[in-house]
Amino acid sequence: AAPQQYAAPQHYAAPQQYAAAPQYTAPAQYYTAPQQYAAAPQQYAAYQQPAQPQPQSESITLPGDAHPGKEYSFQAPDGRTVTFSVPQGMGPGSVITVQY
Length: 100
What we know:
Elements: H1 16-19, H2 28-31, H3 35-38, H4 42-45, E1 57-61, E2 71-75, E3 81-85, E4 95-99
Antiparallel strand pairs: 1-4, 2-3
C-alpha cells in the first residue's frame, strides 16, 4: 500500500504572521565601514612578535676527569652561566658542542 499524505489540521499550522517572516535587511550605514576605517593604519597592519634570541653554541674540550654524566659549567659571552652534562660515549679530550 502506498503511504498516505498527511495534512495537518488547520489548528496545527503555523499562524500566518510566522509562516513567512520578512527578512530583515540592515540599513547601509550599519554594515559598511566608513572609508577612514576601511584599511588599518600601516603601523598596526603587520604586528610582529618580538625577536627571540638566537640559540648560541660553544665548543668545549672535556678535561682529563670527564666521564658521562659529570656536570661542568662555563660562563657564556652574554654573562649567563651554562651548565651541561658529559654525554654518553664522551670522555677526556672529547670536543662537544653545547647549545644554550
